[in-house]
Amino acid sequence: MRKGLARTPGRLTVSVLRDAALSAVLGPRRLHLTTPMKSLFVLLLVLPLALTACGSDTSSPDGPSGTVAAAPDLPMQQALDLGPIDADLAALGEADFTTRCTTCHKMGERYVGPDLADVADRRSPEWIMNMILAPDKMIVADADAQALLAEYSVPMTNQNLTHDEARAILEYLRQVAPGS
Fold first, then answer.
1. Residue 62 contacts by C-beta under 8 Å, 6 or more apart in sequence?
2. What is the pLDDT of residue 88?
3. What's phi and psi for 106, nearest 5 deg?
4. How confident is the prediction for the chain on average, in pLDDT?
5. What are the residue ranges in the chain where pLDDT is below 50?
6. Phi, psi of 11 (to 5 degrees)
7. Which of 77, 73, 82 is nearest to 168 (CA)?
8. Would you say 138 and 130 are in contact if contact means Cβ atoms under 8 Å apart?
């Protein structure tokens, strides 16, 4: 029996993975490293990758807690003039919503993401547009977006929508809101 095969299954897997990583880096000419040295070597190889992949921007926004900091890179900086609901635009928005958003959102129920049936009553049109167009920036700049991330543990995916597509989805959300 080979050395290391008598170990428990979990430790065997770690041992095999560690040895595979060492073989990949060192090639056929392996150094004779002790087990703690092998573990340290693999840790030093994997740690920078893990830190890069899991890193986050920890800078805090300027301004009092619970407010959106001045974020000039958010798409919507000025108030939207919406007017009455445009049924044709809402129909386009419904089609886009069904295609892109229903993986995480359901109307009238909590799902992977929050229930959006009344989001147009709870949030400003600018907030909704910014969340659709730049969710990654909103999570950094907006306290409500940060609270949603904390509650659902899943950040909203940036769908790379155009301004017109996001506006159509906003119109659909306005149409289905109970207060409209």
1. 69, 70
2. 96
3. -125, 145
4. 77
5. 1, 4-5, 55-70
6. -70, -30
7. 82
8. yes
Q: Round to whole Å and give the CA distance between 106 and 97.
A: 10
Coil, helix or strand at residue 109: strand
**Partners of 106 in beta bridges:** 109
Q: How far apart are CA 58 and CA 41, in angstroms?
A: 29
For residues 104 and 113, the answer to whether their CB atoms sit within 8 Å is yes
Here the tokens at position 127 are 């907030």
Residue 38's Cβ-side half-sphere holds a number of Cα atoms within 13 Å equal to: 18
Residue 24 DSSP symbol: H
In this prediction, residue 57 carries a pLDDT of 45
pLDDT digits (tens, 9 = 90+) for 132-165: 999 999 999 899 999 999 999 999 999 999 999 9
Query: How is residue 105 written in tokens?
Result: 């959102």
pTM over 0.70: no
Alpha carbon of 104 to those of 109, 116, 131: distances in Å? 11, 10, 14
For helices 163-176 and 87-100, the axis angle rounded to 10 degrees is 100
Of 156, 116, 115, nearest to 136 by C-alpha is 156
Tally Cβ neighbours within 10 Å of residue 150.
8
Amino acid (one-letter) located at 139:
I
